[in-house]
């Protein structure tokens, strides 16, 4: 699984951090999300998929390898 996060369209809502705190975090200065883990293990899949679904900016894309 590979995650793409488009920081140019992220609006800093923080939903992804709530859904998958092991995979996403937010910059302290402006709240824009960044990846802690670009290729998370399969056990994180449901949390990552939830983050993708709940992102209001559609900034997260999850790719199967
Ligand atoms: S859920 Fe989407 S818009 Fe919100 S912080 Fe995460 S990537 Fe950014």
Automatic annotation (TrEMBL):
Keywords: 3Fe-4S, Electron transport, Iron, Iron-sulfur, Metal-binding, Transport. It comes from the Bacteria. GO terms for molecular function: 3 iron, 4 sulfur cluster binding; electron transfer activity; iron ion binding. Signal peptide: none annotated. The keyword Transmembrane helix does not apply. Coiled coil: none annotated. SUPFAM superfamilies: 4Fe-4S ferredoxins (SSF54862). Residues 1-29 form the 4Fe-4S ferredoxin-type domain. Its cofactor is [3Fe-4S] cluster. InterPro entries: 3Fe4S_ferredoxin, 4Fe4S_Fe-S-bd, Fe-S_cluster_ET. Ferredoxins are iron-sulfur proteins that transfer electrons in a wide variety of metabolic reactions. This is Ferredoxin. It comes from Brevibacterium koreense.
């Amino acid at each position: 699984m590979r995650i793409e996060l488009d920081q140019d369209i992220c609006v800093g809502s923080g939903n992804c951090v709530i859904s998958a705190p092991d995979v996403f975090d937010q910059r302290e200065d402006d709240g824009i999300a960044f990846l802690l883990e670009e290729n998370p293990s399969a056990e994180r899949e449901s949390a990552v998929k939830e983050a993708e679904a709940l992102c209001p900016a559609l900034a997260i894309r999850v790719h199967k390898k």
